[in-house]
Write a structure and sequence with these properties.
Blueprint lengths: L1 E3 L32 H5 L10 H7 L3 E17 L4 E17 L5 E5 L4 E2 L4 E2 L2 E5 L5 E3 L1 E6 L4 E5 L21 E6 L7 E12 L10 E4 L11 E3 L5 E9 L9 E5 H12 L7 E2 L2 E5 L2 H7 L7 E6 L4 H5 L6 E5 L2 E2 L6 H6 L6 E8 L2 E8 L1 E2 L3 H6 L18 H10 L1 E5 L2 H7 L8 E6 L4 H4 L7 E5 L2 E2 L3 H13 L4 E7 L6 E6 L3
Parallel strand pairs: 1-15
Antiparallel strand pairs: 2-3, 2-7, 3-4, 4-10, 5-6, 7-8, 9-10, 11-12, 11-14, 12-13, 13-16, 14-15, 15-16, 17-24, 18-19, 19-20, 20-21, 20-22, 22-23, 25-26, 26-27, 27-28, 27-29, 29-30
Helix pairs in contact: 8-11
């Protein structure tokens, strides 16, 4: 179960009202908990007599998911053969899921089938039914942004459940969770919905959850949250806790948000979300004071991507976006949430405040790039220099680390601007250089750009690894790199390959 450390509190403030009338009759006020509707809403016993019949029908469709993955811990030198071999260890994980069709499609969380420091897909997924029968599952598709994944087992005639309409869920409704918490087998818990459309501050298209006090713990991830009609209204996803275990503040992905993602994964399609191409910051108290605006209304534009939807619409750095497609931008209704949930290609009005004046611009919403590409856009050359980690990355990343002591990634226009080189530059940016490597001793550092190796342009770690391998095959113990650094021309530096 993914969890967030924190302490959440709520202050409920009540109010009273006094109606003053002169010639009209006084209308008697009745306390909310004395109204006649209460008797209709609450069963005589105050709660369902038992969840047993409901659970008996639903439990067979809920599965246990266990995973295995080979993780590289480091590199071992064989003194006799003179070779370097990776040292690996098998790591295990798991969670819950549920069947949505009789031919074996299973919904779970992406983080249940993800491992390693860079979110790699696990090597093996085993699904266990409540009757103990096991299947090896194939990962049909994963979506990082929504934290959803779709699996498939080779089976027919499976018990399955259907999604319900989470838009009809109300605070106070009973809900039932079935899953495999803390390594235990199928476990049932019940509670009520504490809040709907809960924004927990993560940003993006899916920062809206059903909050429930139903007991959820690690291992419940990916399991279903049912209403009393047996419909899946949510997918259990995370909890907030100062101790990493259930304290009654738990969150589920609403079914209405999950259904389009699952349908896209099942069809083999990429999930499309709206995108403007801007970097934003909230308008907090200090920024509001500096701009002469109300706090917590609108978001400040920090950067604008060239040729993006925002740039084409005329949005500029320093603008404050206050309204998107007729919806106010607030901490509860963020710009990212509104735009991401707008279909790409849609033309929408955007209200901005520029130099104290309000204006409306029109933008055609673009398509949000893959999450790994967006992560690269946040490259900060001023971050502390870190030693490359042999535990992470692809085979080519590890080869570059082992042979050169460098961690690299493809240079994008946004990273190029961040490190102070022309946005059209092609190459690799250095994320870290080991102090024990020849590259580190010769002054290469985070933010430097590798343009070419042995006079051949490189733009990927695979290309760099291949150039090093060819040099070694030719009996060379060094490679010639063309390095570009902010504020100067490129220079060629010979870097020795680690023995």
């Amino acid at each position: 179960m993914r969890y967030v450390y924190g302490i959440t509190s709520a202050l409920l403030v009540g109010g009273t009202a006094l109606a003053l009338v002169t010639q009209s009759p006084v209308i008697a006020q009745v306390a909310q908990n004395e109204r006649s509707e209460i008797a209709k809403a609450v069963p005589r016993a105050g709660a369902p007599e038992s969840f047993a019949d409901l659970v008996e029908q639903l439990q067979p469709a809920v599965v246990n998911i266990s995973t295995k993955q080979e993780v590289t811990l480091g590199v071992r030198l064989d003194p006799f053969a003179g070779t370097r071999e990776p040292v690996t260890q098998e790591q295990q994980g798991g969670g819950s899921g549920f069947l949505i069709s009789d031919d074996g499609y299973i919904v779970t969380n992406n983080h249940v089938v993800t491992g390693g420091p860079r979110g790699e897909q696990v090597n093996q997924v085993t699904v266990t039914l409540t009757n103990g029968k096991e299947f090896q599952a194939k990962i049909v598709g994963r979506d990082v942004a929504s934290d959803l994944a779709l699996l498939k087992i080779d089976a027919t005639g499976m018990p399955f459940v259907k999604f319900g309409d989470s838009g009809k869920a109300r605070v106070g409704d009973w809900v039932v969770a079935i899953g495999n918490p803390l390594g235990l087998g199928s476990t049932v818990t019940a509670g009520i919905i504490s809040a709907v459309q809960r924004n927990i501050g993560n940003g993006g298209a899916y920062d809206r959850y059903i909050q429930t006090d139903t007991a959820i713990n690690r291992g419940n991830s990916g399991g279903p949250l049912f209403d009393l009609h047996g419909n899946v209204v949510g997918i259990n996803n995370m909890l907030i806790s100062p101790v990493g275990a259930n304290i009654g503040v738990n969150f589920a992905i609403p079914a209405d948000a999950a259904i389009p993602v699952i349908n896209a994964l099942r069809a083999g399609e990429r999930v499309e979300r709206g995108y403007l191409g801007i970097g934003i910051a909230p308008v907090g108290e200090d920024m509001a004071a500096a701009l002469g605006l109300p706090k917590d209304r609108g978001e400040f534009v920090q950067r604008v991507e060239d040729d993006g939807a925002a740039a084409k619409a005329g949005i500029k750095r320093g603008d404050v976006v206050t309204k998107v497609n007729g919806k106010d931008v607030t901490p509860q209704q963020t710009l990212s949430y509104i735009v991401a949930n707008t279909k790409p290609g849609t033309r929408i009005p955007i209200e901005v405040v520029r130099d104290g004046k309000t204006m409306t611009l029109n933008a055609v919403v673009g398509t949000r790039p893959p999450e790994d590409q967006l992560a690269g856009n946040d490259f900060d050359p001023e971050d502390d220099q870190a030693t490359p980690d042999d535990n992470s990355g692809s085979v080519s990343d590890k080869a570059v680390q082992d042979n050169l002591g460098l961690a690299v990634q493809t240079l994008t226009p946004d990273i190029a601007r961040a490190v102070g080189v022309d946005a059209s530059t092609k190459g690799l940016v250095i994320g870290a250089a080991s102090s024990n490597s020849d590259a580190g001793r010769k002054g290469l550092r985070r933010g430097d750009v590798i343009l070419s190796v042995n006079r051949t342009p490189v733009t990927t770690s695979e290309g760099l690894a291949k150039a090093v391998a060819e040099a070694k095959k030719a009996g060379r113990d060094a490679v010639l790199m063309e390095i570009l650094r902010r504020g100067g021309p490129s220079a060629f530096i010979a870097i020795r390959i680690k023995p």
